[in-house]
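tool=predict chain=A
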Amino acid sequence: MKSIWTGAIGFGLVNIPIKLYSAIHDSHLDLDMLDKKDHANIKFKRVNENTGKEVAWENIVKGYKLDGHYIVITDEDFGKASPEKSKIVEIQKFIEEKEVDGIYYETPYYLEPEKSGVKAYALLRDALHKTGKVGFGSFVLRNKESLCLIKPMDNLLLLSKIRFAREITKPADLNIPKGNSKPAEMKMAIELINRLSGPFDISKYKDTYSDELMKLIKAKAKGRQAPKPAMRVVHSNAKDLLSQLKASLSDHQGKRRKAS
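tool=predict ok
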């Protein structure tokens, strides 16, 4: 596994040298874009707007348009903008993890200590385990500042990038129903929730969509066509909703009997 960032965790006056590793990878199928006419692969080129000629990666720089003109920003400029945040994950305070709503979570990373930071790393991990707290701070990755949480996960520390409040879109224009559920529907819905409640083990859940898509691809390769799925009809009125809740409870009871 290759690290994508090296720096340190700032923990009071203690600096813990660490390496950052991605904790996730995509499970979706890697599909190519093709020309509909002859199925030739579509290639994207970096083209100069003025000359129409392709530009090599080594000749590409980044810039910001200000007053009609581009100001070129170099790697050195990015580092100068905030040198401490470019190399240090500064823990600003310790909080309860439940204080941060799930909408703010972005990407998780594993943290590994450098040799000189092993003892301090273990101390921070164990102290977080014991207090039940998580570290809240910020750092710069790939020229973008992010907020983050640092928490223990078994024997390692996990860093989760979280978004700034201003990055969350307000749902002002959405047509959301007000609380007007009928008592009979509410009672049955709560009963269904209770019956479907139980211990959670995420390892039991697989990416079945990618598997089914691969089966379809292999079937098409052999000249077979998969049947089109039919959409399930949802409730159309209050009476129908109540009957669907009753049917759901009956269906769940039937499945439990078969399982036993």
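Helices lie at 75-81, 83-87, 118-131, 183-195, 208-221, 238-259. Residues 6 and 19 are 5 Å apart (CA to CA).
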